[in-house]
C-alpha cells in the first residue's frame, strides 16, 4: 500500500488515465467506465477502476503541478506496476494556430521547472512521449474526423500558473511550442526512468492570445473527445 494512494495490490489497472482535477477523474469514471469502483479517496484525490470495452482501466487524479503529479505517477509505476499513464487535462493555447476546444497531443514537453535540472545535475533533459501511444492517439483522433482540431507538437510545462515573466512565453512560441500546462514534463521523465509508457493529451480550455476561455464546469465535464482518444490509444498499446 503506497503512502499517497493507499490502494491494495491489484486495485489499479495497467492503464491509467490521469487528469489533474480529482472531480474530472470522478466524471470520467462515471461517464466512460462500467462497474467503476473507487479505490482511493486519500487527500480527496480520487482514483477509480472499471472497464471500457471489456478492458480494465483506472483513472487517477494527480493534482496541479509537476511536484504533485510526480508523487502519484511514481507510486503508480513503482508500487502498482502501472505500464501506461495518459494525462488527460486542459491547456492554454499559446498560438493562433490552436483554437479553444482543440486537442493537443504532446510529442515533447519543455519546462521552466528545476526538477530535471536537479535530477541531471544541470544538464537539459528532453522529455518526450511514448511514440506508440502518440501514434495510436493520432490515429484515434483521425478516426473521429478530428484532424483539423488535433495538433501534435511541443507543450510547455510551467511551474507557474500566474507567471512573473509572461513575455518569455512568446519565445517558446517562436520555437514551435503550441500550448502551456503544468504536468507533462514530469510525467514523461518518470515514465522514462521506470521504463513505462506515457502521453499527455490536453484540450485547450483558454487562449493566451485571444483571451477566450471555457468555464470550470466545461473543463470538468465536456472534454469527451479527448477521453475517447486516450482510452482508444491506451488499450491499443496494452
Q: Could you give the topology of this structure?
A:
Elements: E1 15-18, H1 22-32, E2 34-40, E3 47-52, E4 55-60, H2 66-80, E5 84-93, E6 103-111, H3 115-119, H4 131-143, E7 150-157, H5 169-174, E8 177-181, H6 184-194, E9 197-207, H7 216-221, H8 224-236
Parallel strand pairs: 1-4, 1-5, 5-9, 6-7, 7-8
Antiparallel strand pairs: 2-3, 3-4, 5-8, 6-9
Q: What is the 3D form?
A: globular
**Low-confidence runs:** none
Report the structural category: alpha/beta
Mean pLDDT rating: 94
Number of helical elements: 8
**Can you list the strand order of the major beta sheet?**
5-8-7-6-9
What is the CA-atom radius of gyration, in angstroms? Answer: 16 Å
Description of the structure:
The two termini are 24 Å apart. This protein has helices at residues 22-32, 66-80, 115-119, 131-143, 169-174, 184-194, 216-221, 224-236, and strands spanning 15-18, 34-40, 47-52, 55-60, 84-93, 103-111, 150-157, 177-181, 197-207. The chain is α/β, with parallel strands linked by helices and 238 residues long. The longest helix has 15 residues, at 66-80. The chain is globular. A hairpin with a 2-residue loop joins strand 3 and strand 4 (55-60). Residues 15-222 form the Nucleoside phosphorylase domain. It catalyses: uridine + phosphate = alpha-D-ribose 1-phosphate + uracil. Its EC number is 2.4.2.3.
Summarize the structure.
It contains 8 helices and 9 strands. By secondary structure, it is α/β, with parallel strands linked by helices.
Amino acid at each position: 500500500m503506497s503512502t499517497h494512494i493507499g490502494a491494495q495490490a491489484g486495485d489499479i489497472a495497467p492503464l491509467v488515465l490521469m487528469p489533474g482535477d480529482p472531480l474530472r477523474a470522478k466524471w470520467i469514471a462515471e461517464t466512460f467506465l462500467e462497474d467503476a469502483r473507487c479505490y482511493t479517496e486519500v487527500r480527496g484525490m480520487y482514483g477509480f477502476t472499471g472497464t471500457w470495452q471489456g478492458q480494465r482501466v483506472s483513472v487517477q487524479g494527480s493534482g496541479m503541478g509537476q511536484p504533485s503529479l510526480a508523487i502519484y505517477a511514481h507510486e503508480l509505476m513503482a508500487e502498482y506496476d502501472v505500464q501506461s499513464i495518459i494525462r488527460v487535462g486542459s491547456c492554454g493555447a499559446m498560438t493562433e494556430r490552436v483554437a479553444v476546444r482543440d486537442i493537443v497531443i504532446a510529442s515533447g514537453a519543455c519546462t521552466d521547472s528545476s526538477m530535471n535540472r536537479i535530477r541531471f545535475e544541470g544538464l537539459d533533459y528532453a522529455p518526450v512521449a511514448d511514440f506508440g501511444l502518440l501514434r495510436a492517439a493520432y490515429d484515434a483522433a483521425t478516426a473521429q474526423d478530428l484532424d483539423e482540431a488535433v495538433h501534435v507538437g511541443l507543450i510547455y510545462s510551467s511551474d507557474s500558473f500566474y507567471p512573473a515573466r509572461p513575455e518569455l512565453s512568446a519565445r517558446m512560441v517562436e520555437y514551435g511550442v503550441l500550448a502551456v500546462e503544468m504536468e507533462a514534463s514530469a510525467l514523461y521523465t518518470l515514465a522514462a526512468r521506470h521504463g513505462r509508457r506515457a502521453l499527455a493529451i490536453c484540450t485547450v480550455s483558454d487562449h493566451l492570445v485571444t483571451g477566450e476561455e471555457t468555464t470550470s464546469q466545461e473543463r470538468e465535464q465536456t472534454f469527451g473527445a479527448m477521453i475517447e482518444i486516450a482510452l482508444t490509444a491506451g488499450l491499443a498499446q496494452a
